[in-house]
Amino acid sequence: xxxxxxxxxxxxxxxxxxxxxxxxxxxxxxxxxxxxxxxxxxxxxxxxxxxxxxxxxxxxxxxxxxxxxxxxxxxxxxxxxxxxxxxxxxxxxxxxxxxxxxxxxxxxxxxxxxxxxxxxxxxxxxxxxxxxxxxxxxxxxxxxxxxxxx
Length: 150
Fold this sequence. Notes:
The protein is an alpha+beta fold. It has one domain (about 5-140): 2-Layer Sandwich (Ribosomal Protein S5, domain 2). Helix content is about 25%, strand content about 30%. It has a five-stranded mixed beta sheet with strand order 1-2-3-5-4, with helices on one face. Strands 6-7 form a two-stranded antiparallel ribbon. Helix 1 crosses helix 2 (about 105-120).
């Protein structure tokens, strides 16, 4: 059981308030964090910031799988983001998949955490992700490739 080599870099993009790239083997994700900024009236919450998470696939439009991953990413980020410190604002986290060679969700989680830190947002703790898979023979695969995931 070994993790593929990984690396991350902060502050790659100039327009977002925070950005990060996370590479894990041949899987790579770029994260951009915008905000806190003024929220649309229809979406604002009087007691906390609203977090929007968008996961963009490498090609094509987002589908059901991306929407499901967005929800998981949003719940994870909301659990550590101190949203009450920025009431009536919006924070957007945009994750762009650059390449997917397996363990994409954990790569997205790691990119999101580093991006939130780069934006200087108040967090109660840090988080990270590692993908594990159970092989039919009962062995555990750590950080599976796309082929192993199938």
